[in-house]
DNA sequence: GATGAATGAGGCTTCATTCAT
DNA sequence: TATGAATGAAGCCTCATTCAT
């Protein structure tokens, strides 16, 4: 295919992938644009044909990766209606993504926090969409009487996500990554939140 | 009091407090050393009489603030033996500290994550000591049969702390800080974890 | 000629020449990198595309100028076999170079001595090669019985070079450079060393 | 003696000696005033009670050391009338001073060249007085018909001193100082100059 | 579109010097 | 006379970004 749009896309992807790796390795501030260019096999200036500036590159990575995460999470929850089971799957799938794409996870978790612009000016809509999936699970569970009605879905959402995120960060930072079993961590956090949110009359049968 | 040691300490404290404010406002990288000096009312060079360099200033703030947090948390838990009540107090006190010292919280939570050195080389012993307080509450609860024995205190610790931390960060970042009621958030996260960790035979009486 | 290598070389040379002038005028420590950049008509940063740092610029000048000096001296001695005449030519050519390239001489003689790195760590191979030309003249003269065998070529070399160097420095430093006639100085130092090193049976016929 | 002037002098000497050592070790620019103060066992500010500034300290050392050198040289030549023998003694005594006071020699030879002010503005009268001793030996020799009248005492002086100086510098810089035998070097340079300057009818009997 | 040489603003840090005690 | 904490000017270097080719 000699479609110029195709080629344009290819070069853009080269840069994106290189940037993920370099940001993950060195961190956003330590990463030099020329490092990314070299790794992508393009000239420094080429990056500015596809991205406004270094920060735009970081945010673009975030947007693109979050699209993948969002789609993946929606697919993972597809056909599962039980709120309890949806909580389990959410945690399990989140960590699976982290493990399958360590560099991207590192960039998303560690480096994005570094950008003041990101934190204070940029509104991460995609992240909210991702988190809202969880908030809606809680709301659905409350509607069907499974979860206690006095739980604030907003607080539960941040608390749950913060927990997953912190564990993922420890895993990413750990030199010896055997130390944290992501599957087991997913199961435990999910069970704590499930039991913690269940109405008193409910009883959980542990997942098999 | 013309004690020279006293004066020395005073100047150092001036710098520390100024640095907390400036780092919180502008972020570590955006903060210029001369900004800090001006706010502290000292010359630029004076900062280097007390701190090795800009990063050392950041890490020193971390150490000093964590000492305060550690002492405060130990005091807040003093005399409380019931693990369940200790979990509640941990969450409540953590958020209280965040709210009473917004700038310091901002630096600790947001800016420290930005330093590669902090995350990858510096071992934040003080943070671990802080977190271990929670892990030990879990262990104590397990020993007394209140909390389920299959809970991994390590995972619970990171999950719980990550949740508190994320909520605190949202509060710090929120322009309108009414939106998140820290007391209520503390109560909810604590209750979720408590119920989530209780053995099946236990029942909680909600705190009054 | 649109040869990019040509242009690259041109810019490097611009910087080198500017640096020679500025170092000669102000001295190494007093010379600011921005002075050199301005004189070369380039941006400050451009200098760092060609040189690692300010000191590397100084050492590069040394290497490049010594190459020229070495070639020039070899050429000046070409075809002259008589050790006595070679000594004369060495002195004469050395001072000719000094006068034709006053700034470079100033940098080489005055400023290089200022760099601890140069004196204590850097091994000036090129300078030794230059000096060895003289030591070999002495050795040749000893082999052919013209110069006394008890002369240590090493001591003669340093003594001779030191003498030329000191006279050149006085000439460089003198505000009124008429005061020292370099040609006459060359002749006198050469004659002293020649007579001083001749075996007793020899007689010199003064050069015409 | 509780004479305050005595004490004043003592402290000044402490500083001078410390400065000689530190300048010799680290070089003028690398030497910090506080290094000198610490080595002298005084406060930084105390140095400024005795010296105008860092450069004045360097120049004062030069003046003081040159006084000693001058007196020493005059004494060493006292009672010796033969110009030939005076040349020998000059070289021998110069190197003896260098060896007996290595740090001072290092400062005088290496570091003084580094100060633009010294080289371009400061007129080293004492150095000239020292050198003039040699120029006068040449003049005396010419007056008594021992040295050739066409020798320019000025050129001979710089050439001779430059040679001694360069050899001394190589000795100072040499890690293994056995490599250069200063006594032998003194003898050789002196003999070269003596024979080189003698009138044709003269013959030297080598020194015993 | 692609290149990469060139740009130049910007800030951390050092250290000689001062001065209140 | 002595101190030493405080000062603050000054400059090397980096690196994101541009633009002529």
Q: What labels describe this entry?
A:
homotetramer, 208 residues, mainly alpha, Arc Repressor Mutant, subunit A, Tetracycline Repressor, domain 2, 10 helices, elongated, DNA-binding
User: What is the β-strand count of chain A?
Assistant: 0
Largest sheet of chain A: none
Mean pLDDT of chain A: 87
Low-confidence stretches of chain A: none
> What structural class results from the helix and strand content of chain A?
mainly alpha
Distance between the ends of chain A: 49 Å
Supply Rg of chain A.
19 Å
Under the CATH scheme, the architecture of the largest domain in chain A is Orthogonal Bundle
Overall form of chain A: elongated
Describe the structure.
Four copies of one chain form a homotetramer. Chain A is built from ten helices and no strands. Chain A is mostly helical and 208 residues long. Chain A has two domains: 1-51, Arc Repressor Mutant, subunit A (Orthogonal Bundle), CATH 1.10.10.60; 60-197, Tetracycline Repressor, domain 2, CATH 1.10.357.10. Chains in contact: A-B, C-D. Chains C and D meet through α7, α9 and α10 of C and α7, α9 and α10 of D. Chain B binds a DNA duplex (21 and 21 nucleotides) through α1, α2 and α3.
